[in-house]
Design brief:
CATH architecture: 3-Layer(aba) Sandwich
CATH class: Alpha Beta
Strand order of the largest sheet: 1-6-5-4-7-9-8
Shape: globular
Structural class: alpha+beta
Bound molecules: flavin mononucleotide
CATH topology: NADH Oxidase
Radius of gyration: 18 Å
Amino acid sequence: MQSDSSWTGHRFLQETLFRDSEQSVAQPKTRICGICEPNQTIIPLPAPADIPLDPVILWDALDNRQTIRSYSPDEMHKWELSILLHYTQGVREKKNGSHFRTVPSAGALHPFETRIVVNRVDGLFPGIYRYLPLDHALVREECHSGDHESVAKTCKNTALVSSSAVSFIWTAVPERMIWKFGPRGWRYLFLEAGHICQNLYVVCAGLSLGVCAIGSYNDDDINCILGIDGESEFCIYMASVGRKKE
Ligand SMILES: Cc1cc2nc3c(=O)[nH]c(=O)nc-3n(C[C@H](O)[C@H](O)[C@H](O)COP(=O)(O)O)c2cc1C
């Protein structure tokens, strides 16, 4: 007799088995990422190519990657945020109508939206912002319930987000993946979220910033704050970032 949770896992695996016949060869049917509304002001971020980064040895960054859960009260710079967004969801090449980013994505479909909770980033008011990968820019977002400080309360460890300089909220839009891959696309959503967060860890190691992946949050509450329905778009992963304490 299987426990409920292994039954859930078993069903997920069975219902998302790879079937070549289910893969669509049609052109993309869905928008690759969200766009801003006409009333939203686009806030450009420093161009990553113009940011003079100290060289980092990749092997050192991988060896030094670790979870840090408490952060100093110091601000982060906007250029650091720009780098974190670029290496987690930034566009590195546009070719034949596809957008290739700094993380891999099945079919280059990139089914995510990135929102950030800004607590302490120079030049940005505290609040929730959405990242526009094609413009490498931000737009300010309204909270649909509570305010940006409510996001911390959705997490089991509230201090992760409340003490962070900035926190990342990645949401998945399944239709961007499912139209092409069918049920198998559901697996790709979760695999791809992992790629994004791993890049965040490695880049934070390179910039000597602290970072913590967050999977323990109340799904309904975070979706409600963001104004998403939890079905056509849902929060898939979060992470907090800040300067390390001395
Ligand atoms: C999918 C996932 C979810 C996680 N969720 C949380 C979380 O909700 N809260 C937390 O404090 N750490 C969370 N972590 C961080 C892990 O606890 C951490 O990676 C682990 O303790 C190993 O430490 P290391 O990253 O320094 O190797 C999560 C990590 C992963 C990969």
